[in-house]
Amino acid sequence: MRRLGVHRPCQWTLAASPFITGAPAISVFGAMFDLKWIRENPDSFDRGLARRGLQPMAARVLELDRQWREAQTGAEQLQAERNKLSKEIGVAKAKGQDASDILGRVAKTKDEQAALEASAAERRGEIDAVLATLPNLPAADVPDGKDETGNVEIRRHGTPPSFAFAARDHAALGEGLRLMDFARAGKISGARFVVLYGQLARLERALAQFMLDLHTREFGYQEVSPPLLVRGEAAFGVGQLPKFEEDLFKTTNGFYLIPTAEVSLTNLVADEILDEAVLPLRFTAGTPCFRSEAGAAGKDTRGMIRQHQFEKVELVSIAHPDQSEAEHERMTACAEEVLKRLGLAYRVMLLCSGDMGFASRKTYDIEVWLPGQGTYREISSCSNCGEFQARRMSARFRPKEGKGTRFVHTLNGSALAVGRTLIAVMENYQQGNGTITVPDALRPYMGGLTTIGGDV
């Protein structure tokens, strides 16, 4: 569920992206990171990468940058020389003089300029190829750590329920009610799929409707019905490509099924310059999501915890840089409120530098209590990506005062993963006879039904 003073970068055009097959031209050189900042702060850049568990890269990037600028400057000087020689040719011809020597010098400088321009283009491509695979740098208040063991608990809410019977997990409950079918789903699609019937299918739908109504009516998010198929540059813009291509499902004609609505919602502002007055923009969408779960072999093989297809309600904010930290706290609170109204116990974790998603500079995970597993499990990740995604997709705003433009900050969060919320409701509201009590907040969406399994 989780996957890092604004300098205006040099402008250039690349005929085809080296990262994404079939991608369009990239219009901003060094879009993934601020090259000027790297030149001025190479040690800070390397320290940020080290916190991510990566080797230093500043020296390599800056050497390529030096070669690029040297070749570019040489090409510009040769162009200036050609312009001067062209004037000399005009003067010579006007006087009836022989200009063959000058013409020879023009031809030579033309060939030399072409070679330098080709070298500059190659260096540019190499810089982008390097930067495109590097994650966002962690914020200063993110704890250091290699993996989830370095995460820090921020707060808890609610008390896990206690039962007078042995708690069952959602798979046992759903199959016992004959409303959850993994066998038939496997026959149709293979492993990591499920079929829900009747009251459970309705409960899943009710959860998504409840979440969307809460976020739109009370929290000011605009509901969006976005595309589920996106082009490669959209996936690149949010950091899914090139590093995580194996986690995506790709169609035969080059589209990608979204792994999260974050891809579609964040790209709504790609290649745009917004007025500062419209910020923040807040979007929400309830969509199917598709993930290959590459590398998840042997993990969460039972039940619905980790599936190739699942429902999720996503929150995305496009914020002013000065307000993104406050927006991050607000978004996390919106996700928490869903669990509060459902009466589910949870905790909030601040992820360490080694456990954050690729595009995030700071992430809160919300983990819900699952009685069937006797532990807290992730149900939401809320991330502040800073300007990392905005640079990749060229999303900017024009300040009310001053000149030029600045990159927006982008944030995203699950609020919530519907399938995992369904699991949490089933396990926390289970009864000794195998039925499931419907939480009060969901009953208006269930036609007043109070019990799942009371009449199946």
Distance between the termini: 33 Å
Number of strands: 19
Shape: elongated
CATH class of the largest domain: Alpha Beta
Give the gist of this structure:
This protein has 456 residues and is α+β, with helices and mostly antiparallel strands. The chain contains twelve helices and 19 strands. The protein has helices at 35-40, 42-51, 58-94, 100-131, 170-176, 182-189, 198-217, 232-237, 262-266, 324-342, 388-393, 418-428; strands at 11-14, 26-28, 152-157, 180-181, 195-196, 222-223, 229-230, 256-257, 273-275, 281-290, 309-319, 346-350, 362-370, 375-384, 396-398, 406-407, 409-417, 436-437, 451-452.
Q: Can you walk through the features of this model?
A:
With 456 residues, the protein is an alpha+beta fold. It has 2 domains: 11-40 and 58-131, Serine-tRNA synthetase, tRNA binding domain (Helix Hairpins), CATH 1.10.287; 148-452, BirA Bifunctional Protein, domain 2, CATH 3.30.930. It is 37% helix and 20% strand. The chain contains 12 helices and 19 strands. The chain has helices at residues 35-40, 42-51, 58-94, 100-131, 170-176, 182-189, 198-217, 232-237, 262-266, 324-342, 388-393, 418-428, and strands spanning 11-14, 26-28, 152-157, 180-181, 195-196, 222-223, 229-230, 256-257, 273-275, 281-290, 309-319, 346-350, 362-370, 375-384, 396-398, 406-407, 409-417, 436-437, 451-452. The strands form 6 sheets. Strands 3-12-13-14-17-11-10-6 form an 8-stranded mixed β-sheet. Helix 7 crosses helix 12 (418-428). The longest helix is centred in the first third of the chain and has 37 residues, at 58-94. It is elongated. The relative contact order is 0.15. The model is unreliable at 1-30 (pLDDT under 50).
